[in-house]
Amino acid sequence: MAFLQLEGLSKRYGAIDAVVATHLAVEKGEFVSLLGPSGCGKTTTLQMIAGFVDATAGRIVLDGRDITHAKPSSRGLGVVFQSYALFPHMTVRDNVAFGLRMRKVPAADIAKRVAKVLELVRLAQHADRYPRELSGGQRQRVALARALVIEPPVLLLDEPLSNLDANLREEMQFEIRRIQCEVGITTLMVTHDQAEALSISDRVVVMQAGRVTQIDEPYKLYEHPRTRFISGFVGKANMLPGDRDNAGQPQVRHAAGDGELTLSLRPEKIDLLEAGNGRLQGRIVTRYFLGSQWLYRLDTALGEITVVRRNDGSAPLAEGTSVGLDWQADLLRVLAADEVPA
Ligand code: ATP
Question: In what order do the strands lie in the sheet with 16-26?
């Protein structure tokens, strides 16, 4: 049995099915993200695990123990929300020590454990500061330290980085992953940011309208999205009409009209060649500079197609240029229809 198991976990609010029969098995030490659009049930799932929301049906089993209806305090899980909820009148050290004092841990042990965890989150030199004297990223580290110091079996993170600006956010993603690896703690994180989920998780759980629609390692999820929705939500995708060739391999259908299949082709998988070459002809309508890449929008007989090319330092293609598009046939992915209302 996995370390943390959700078995048919469901939550109903009146007529709203917030979470529908969710199954998930998280292994010890694993970092799993719940990813999905607003309102898909991510937070409700996390809140049921934390014990702040009571499940309507199903079970939550932690390390062999059924905790479905246990009090939050008896579960002893570490929780970090997007609002840091630090005590403003306490120093960093006291904020972190608070949970241990509540648990009546001897003072000498508290001092040792707080010092160790502040070292871990790289805040040892700021132990005597107050939250107002810290940056957003530093406050989030305090919140993390406060959750970790009680040495919980599972760490629950709800959009922990959404209050931070883009650069800091990326830095903190890697920090969270480093800390999680160092401590080896089983972690479940809620996010609506696909880049965040892909970059730091062992596995990603995609949720839609209260249901789990795919669970996979980040690379697998990106390269083999199961449905149209997932393909578009996890990264950018071109959706193309297709059918199967004589050997049964999917191919893009060039004739007008709907194909039998919906195919997905990632923008970075498309090469741009001189006009007249390749599988499809197009014209660059607009281009956007993304720093490390150029994003081109092209007009083609199959509609608008997005292409992303690495910025190798040479001049980009001009708007209005005619080009040929090419791709490896085995990078086309056949998508299933969406079984869940988006
Ligand atoms: P977000 O990213 O916007 O927080 P989410 O994926 O975390 O979204 P939830 O907060 O879990 O989604 O909400 C799932 C559904 O349950 C939504 O339709 C929401 O309106 C509903 N819901 C959540 N909490 C309650 C509540 N206390 N009472 C009634 N409906 C609720």
Answer: 16-26, 4-13, 57-62, 65-66
Instruction: Kindly give the distance from the C-alpha atom of residue 204 to the centroid of ligand 1, in angstroms, as a whole number.
Output: 20
Residue tagged 């969710």 (tokens):
22
Per-residue pLDDT band at 160 (split at 50, 70, 90): confident
Q: Please tell me the number of Cα atoms within 13 Å of 148 on its side-chain side.
A: 25
Kindly report, residue by residue over 274-284, the tens digit of the pLDDT.
Answer: 999 999 999 99
Ligand 1, CB cutoff 6 Å, lining residues? 13, 16, 18, 36, 38-44, 192
Angle between helix axes 92-102 and 107-120 (nearest 10 degrees) is: 130
Number of the ligand 1 atom closest to the C-alpha atom of 41: 11
Listed in sequence order, the residues at least 6 apart from 312 whose beta carbon sits closer than 8 Å to its beta carbon are: none
Q: What does the pLDDT read at residue 253?
A: 85
19: β partners:
11
| pTM of this structure | 0.92
Residue 242 is which amino acid? Answer: G
Residue 87 Cα to chain centre, angstroms: 29
Q: What number does the ligand 1 atom closest to the CA of 192 have? A: 2
Residue 157 has pLDDT above 90, yes or no: yes
Which residues make beta-bridge pairs with 335? 262
